[in-house]
Amino acid sequence: MATVTLYMAISADGFIATSDDNTEWVGDESWQSYLEFVANCDVVLVGKNTFQLMEKDEFVEGTKYLVVASDSTRTNHDSISITSKNDLPQVEKIGVIGGGELNGRLLALGVINEVILDVEPIILGSGKKLFGERNITAHLKLFSSKLIGPSTVQNRYKVERA
What we know:
Strand content: 25-35%
Order of helices and strands: EEHEHEEEHEEEE
Strand order of the largest sheet: 5-4-3-6-1-7-10-9
Largest sheet: 8 strands, mixed
Distance between the termini: 18 Å
Number of strands: 10
Helix content: 10-25%
Shape: globular
Number of helices: 3
Radius of gyration: 15 Å
Structural class: alpha/beta
């Protein structure tokens, strides 16, 4: 069975982007770590809106990206619908890189095994939430924490119960 890992950079107050989808506040160390993470995944799942916002330098050559659509709207990229664990690609390592609505839907379905959060030293006050507008409770167990930049901490958690 696949290991599904959610990877996100977040502000100190828990937002993944500003209200207008800006992520310029994310440090270089987080971007480098993100690129390394994606390069080591067999498949990367991304939400339709996030995929459309991604810039060329955010895609890692040779990595397979699948756009997870919650409706029948197709993109000009490979799209899938995930409504249960059975819908996941049959590979060993799946990365999830958001956005918030996709993160929330996959956590609610119980398919995310691990969460990696790069906590950036900024307070945004408002913006896009890590799990969108879903009201989710999950139990996490911290298994690694390290400084990846002057003030950026990367925490790795095992999802014990969603």
